[in-house]
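sry for the spam today, last one i promise. struct tokens for design, 135 residues
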């Protein structure tokens, strides 16, 4: 999951632990994932996926490894309770349930004003092939 402007859905990693991470994200008016001035369902799921990706990147860097490219392979048990308006900040917590060399399975929960607004399970496929730049 390469993340670059204008498709960055995380502002700050608040904590990164072995099987858990927490991120924050303030929704800006120029976000590509807005519908009627609210972050849409796709943006909420993308925020969770990027929290998984940044956590994995932090861990790889701490191990002296390069960050790997990952792809959302499965979204399960998705529940969206509310969308969030422009200008507000969301907090996303992810918990890794299973981690293998080629995939990660975990749960994500996003909060707005201490209320759960979205939850889901994700499977992230990890592409372990080296890019032509690395060879």
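last one done:
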């Amino acid at each position: 999951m390469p993340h670059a402007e204008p498709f960055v859905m995380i502002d700050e990693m608040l904590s990164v632990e072995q099987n858990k991470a927490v991120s924050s994200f303030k929704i800006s008016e120029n976000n590509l994932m807005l519908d009627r001035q609210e972050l849409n369902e796709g943006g909420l799921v993308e925020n969770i996926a990027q929290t998984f990706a940044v956590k994995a990147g932090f861990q790889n860097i701490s191990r002296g490894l390069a960050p790997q490219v990952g792809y959302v392979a499965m979204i399960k048990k998705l529940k969206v309770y509310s969308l969030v308006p422009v200008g507000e900040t969301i907090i996303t917590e992810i918990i890794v349930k299973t981690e293998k060399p080629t995939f990660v399975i975990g749960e994500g929960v996003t909060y707005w004003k201490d209320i759960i607004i979205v939850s889901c399970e994700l499977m992230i496929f990890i592409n372990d092939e080296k890019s032509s730049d690395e060879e």
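Confidence is low (pLDDT under 50) at residues 131-135. ok im logging off now
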